[in-house]
Amino acid sequence: MVTTSGMPSASAADGPATRPVAVLIGPPGSGKTVVGRALAELLGVALRDTDEAVEQAQQRSISDIFVEDGEARFRELERQEVAASLATHTGVLSLGGGAVMEPATAEALAGHTVVFLQVGIADAAKRVGFDRSRPLLMMNPRAQWVRLMDARRPTYERLATLRVDTAGRTPQDIAAEIAEALGEQQ
């Protein structure tokens, strides 16, 4: 089910003409990448996943960046990638789960259509398996996930213009619901 709040209009007065059609946010396992792919395909636009973009630019995994350079360096790279993508990407944009916790990133999302993909721990665990490629979930992944959600949920809620419950749903079903909501805001 999609819920909306303060959805931005597409008028030039609201900001730059070049903007993503939707920015997906949410915790690990919420489906940002797979729903993003389905939504981009449905809308006939490109998907840009900022985590994947950082990995490609750095030619190493996020886990390796965390281990070798630290979380602060990763967040700096992520912040730069999000800012560049918000300014230039016109398709669907998927952000890493913690990107919105950076004040500059949260501020940059103002005026964009931000979709919070809500997920419970049971579905998140099935989707990501809490594997080692998630650096912030390495030790006791379920407890870490709950802790991350407790810290991040208020920010996700505050930034979201659309909220979509992903529990037990396919990426295609979720994407169709988002696309319908995007069409209604036009």
Write the layout of secondary structure elements.
Blueprint: E1 2-4, E2 22-25, H1 32-43, E3 47-49, H2 50-58, H3 62-69, H4 71-88, E4 92-94, H5 103-108, E5 114-118, H6 121-128, H7 141-159, E6 162-165, H8 171-185
Parallel strand pairs: 2-4, 2-5, 3-4, 5-6
Antiparallel strand pairs: 1-6
Helix pairs in contact: 1-8, 2-4, 3-4
Structural class: alpha/beta
Q: Which CATH architecture would you pick?
A: 3-Layer(aba) Sandwich
Instruction: Count all strands and give the number.
Output: 6
Distance between the termini: 19 Å
Unreliable stretches covering 5 or more consecutive residues:
7-16
Q: From N to C, what is the helix and strand string?
A: EEHEHHHEHEHHEH
Strand arrangement, major sheet:
1-6-5-2-4-3
Largest sheet, strands/sense/barrel: 6 strands, mixed
Tally of DSSP helical segments: 8
Please give the domain count.
Answer: 1
Mean pLDDT: 86
CATH topology annotation: Rossmann fold
Q: Outline, from the CA principal axes?
A: globular
Cα-based radius of gyration, to the nearest Å: 16 Å
Helix content: 40-55%
Which CATH first-tier class would you pick? Alpha Beta
Strand content: 5-15%
Subcellular location: Cytoplasm
Pathway: Metabolic intermediate biosynthesis; chorismate biosynthesis; chorismate from D-erythrose 4-phosphate and phosphoenolpyruvate: step 5/7
Binding site for ATP: 29-34, 134, 169
GO biological process, one term: chorismate biosynthetic process
